[in-house]
Amino acid sequence: MKITMTVNGKTRSGEAEGRTLLVNFLRDTLGLTGTHVGCDTSQCGACVVHVNGQAVKSCTMLAAEADGAQVSTIEGQAAPDGTLNTIQQAFQDHHGLQCGFCTPGMVMSATALLKENPKPTEAEIRHYLEGNICRCTGYHNIVKAIMAASGQDVGAIAAE
Amino acid sequence: MPKDGIGASTKRREDIRFLTGAGNYTDDINIHGQTYAHFVRSDVAHGKINNIDTSAAEAMDGVIKIFTAADFASAGGIPCGWQVTDRFGQPMQEPKHPILAEGKVRHVGDPICVVIAETLEQARDAGEAIEIDIEELEPVLNMKDALKDGATKVHDDLTSNLCYDWGFVEENRDAVDAAIKSAHHVTTLELVNNRLVPNPMEPRVAVGHYARANDEYTLYTTSQNPHVIRLLMGAFVLGIPEHKLRVVAPDVGGGFGSKIYHYAEEAFVTYASKVINRPVKWTSTRSEAFISDAHGRDHVTKIELAMDENYMFTAVRTDTYANMGAYLSTFAPSIPTWLHGTLMAGNYTTPLVYVNVKAVFTNTVPVDAYRGAGRPEATFQLERVIDKAAREIGMDPAELRRRNFIKPEQFPYQTPVAVMYDTGNYHATLDKALEMTDYANFDKRAAESKARGKLRGYGLAHFIEACGIAPSNLVGQLGARAGLYESATVRVNATGSISVFTGSHSHGQGHETTFAQVVAEMIGIDVSQIDIVHGDTSKTPMGMGTYGSRSIAVGGSAMVRATEKIINKAKKIAAHLLEASEADIELKDGKFSVAGTDKSVEWAGVTLAAYVPHNYPLENLEPGLEETAFYDPANFTYPSGAYVCEVEVDPDTGKVDILGFTAADDFGNVINPMIVAGQVHGGVAQGIGQALLENTVFDENGQLLTGSFMDYAMPRASDMPSFDVDHSCQTPCTHNPLGVKGCGEAGAIGSPPAVVNAVIDALQRGGYNVDHIDMPVSPSRVWAAMQQG
């Protein structure tokens, strides 16, 4: 079947089977490989995108379910000239990523968190990231980056 | 010094692509005409394959070819890269590890056949239609049972399930026994070092592409060491000469050891691409990763620590059963032996050490190096037994360690277990950690917790590791079938920019930034002028890759040596341009000047002259500015540190909360403190994961019960505390040019004993007579121990 959706502000179409997952449609059909697949049980969160403004794991949604939806992925977060947005910049400033594989999902989840809760506490950030697994950073600098992106003082979190 | 030179927390340049979805991971690579491979794997732990019927599957839409072991009759098995000699002087038993199962399956996940189809869905559908008749055999699971007479064998052609019985230092065996017999006090501890699944977030992927017109193969793979894969697969498995085989490891999403090894899937896609004359792609699912990536740890150990009347350590004896799994993964035999036994002196002056390791085949997934690799197993048993000893004799655990530490003035220090530590200051790191954690006031905090009905505990561990792997001639004597040097080519371009081609491989470590900082510092140009290229055998010189915290210590040293050659040649060119003696030329801040004069030439002026050699000493100097160096380390490096964990245990539930985790490390000189801190954070998180959460459980049939992220407890953000890390105690390495020791594994080595020591401390302070709980120290285990204690 033909699926059409608005991805990062542009209308995109492609063919998909009924069983095609949104993440595979984005990666394989539309070539948006920034969204990653890190598991097959909807645990890791590497595939988080926004659908109609809500953060979703794109491995738990069929492409057909997103027909006609507004989809936002990691590729659409920086400014058109490549300037990182506030959250992306905070991740770089605070070393909130190492191998980069979980990073797109982390950034998309962090974006959703700050929309819901513009000044989260450290505990709220850690709780919110329950569905995003990172194996490299121990989360310390991810938490710090999100807190910094929200405009809060990160001095309370140990210096490095 | 340029602002982004050595010692600067330069932001990582690689982050830009990772933060914008522009990374290029192996699964992001798609080649025109690509086909998809689906592996059909054993769902039993041990069995005889009676029949494989692929006829229905072959007739299905999109199926191109189905491969079985018969298609690989001419290929070699997956080779093992290290041969251990046992304590009787005999080589280890080394079974064949076929690409696809030959007649028998030996673990859940053992690949039996592979479907290649036009789409992944078609390949999977066809895989479901293959009928495999397997006669189940009794699985070999328990290591001690596996060594009993008459035990079922994993490999029929071996004499038993024993891979090797290793003793080290064998000549000390009797002396250690005697020292233990005559000791004033002996502390004994039996423990399990739990099996872990490395689980980098990026599952493994391999794309094979054969170009018939040129008879050239390209393998894109999620590897920490593309040249090692090229050598092992080309020379030992498929018989492809190196010049016809290119291995590319692009952006790799974490490794932690599990992407060192040459895996069957890599050989498969490379070979199959030639057979069907189309590219072949395989992407592991996470479920597949759990049963096909090499696991880590899995030791069962008894350790004895002997002390004299002054509580000085007089001997350590340890007996370990190490699980190899069903086959020998690339470096598996070396992990419980040379990467484990050589660390059993720890930070201490113990004069006599004897380590016995029995490596055992079982019907489980193969086990190999996982972050730390042998050193966490050594550190855990030593730091746990010391803590237990301190409690038995009623001494402060910090004091017992301190009195047995090698003293700063004793370096270089020859241990009784072969290795010689070049530098260290264990008193400094211990004092730093105690100060950072306000050890002096712990009792007040414990009282405050007690008032809230909680049990507070303070856990300390001190560790040593051997990194910067490794002197080639030494490891050759120990059984390595590879050299462990590293390489770098520094290519200076005509306008002065530089491309460095390194044999190290970055899969999260940030080499593109730190390596550039080093060259920027040496030449005095802006870091933006330097690019680091890695991960492609067609670009970089033969290199051994990244593991064992070796990149900056070995790869960085090769880069320094190559850059020194560049500078030496550039000085000759500058001397010519400035009409001065080469001996008078100084390089500072990217400018060559003649000492004592105002005559100078910029870096870019010299590089341009090298490539446009009009005014150039052509009679005695070649044009161009490109140099290669291979660096073989003279010794290992020995990072060390003191780790402290403070916990609260809920006596009603047994739940352990980590209140704080502190790491005071000595990594020698540090290139980028921000990145070093990040490496420690990640290592500590993996160590806390091992201590509190992670475990790999097989049932009595050999089925993996913890086969997904729903059952295997990966640490989440809410499981982790903030970390307090310090690396201000620095005793630089004496034998490499940067004075660096490496920082990648430290966190995973020092943290498990710190966590468990803290839990035991909490329970004992709470009046519970509990002296050990095996990892993971889960609420149920803590609660059960409290009921008995």
UniProtKB/TrEMBL annotation, chain B:
Pfam families: Ald_Xan_dh_C, MoCoBD_1, MoCoBD_2. Residues 20-138 form the Aldehyde oxidase/xanthine dehydrogenase a/b hammerhead domain. This is Xanthine dehydrogenase family protein molybdopterin-binding subunit. InterPro entries: Ald_Oxase/Xan_DH_a/b, Ald_Oxase/Xan_DH_a/b_sf, Ald_Oxase/xanthine_DH-like, AldOxase/xan_DH_MoCoBD1, AldOxase/xan_DH_MoCoBD2, AldOxase/xan_DH_Mopterin-bd_sf. It comes from Thalassobius vesicularis. The keyword Oxidoreductase applies. It comes from the Bacteria. Keywords: Molybdenum, Oxidoreductase. One of its GO terms (molecular function) is iron ion binding.
